[in-house]
Amino acid sequence: MTGFALWMIAAVGASVFCLVRGVLDCRRGHYVWGVLGIASSLVFMLTPIPTHAVKVDLPVNSR
């Protein structure tokens, strides 16, 4: 579990770095690099990470 938490902290750190760098690039006028940095940050943040599986048994209708 500790290893998973370390990877999550590293992923959040990389995402924040990409976001900040993208905003700074946009402010400097490097719009292509800025958009790429912001987009990569959003991809990092919005990617679902499976943590555990949940099994749900639904009742079968017996008509």
Describe this structure in words.
With 63 residues, this protein is mainly alpha-helical. The protein contains two helices and no strands. Helix 1 packs antiparallel against helix 2.
Number of helices: 2
Q: Which radius of gyration do the C-alpha atoms yield? A: 19 Å
Q: Could you name the ranges where pLDDT drops below 50 across 5 or more consecutive residues?
A: none
> What percentage of residues falls in helices of 4 or more residues?
55-70%
Distance between the termini: 46 Å
Average pLDDT confidence is: 87
> Biggest β-sheet: count, sense, barrel?
none
Q: Please state the overall shape, judged from the principal axes of the Cα atoms.
A: elongated
Write the layout of secondary structure elements.
Layout (H helix, E strand, L loop, with lengths): L1 H27 L2 H16 L17
Helix pairs in contact: 1-2
Compose a concise summary of this entry.
This protein is mainly alpha-helical and 63 residues long.
Give the key terms.
mainly alpha, 63 residues, 68% helix, 2 helices, elongated, 0% strand
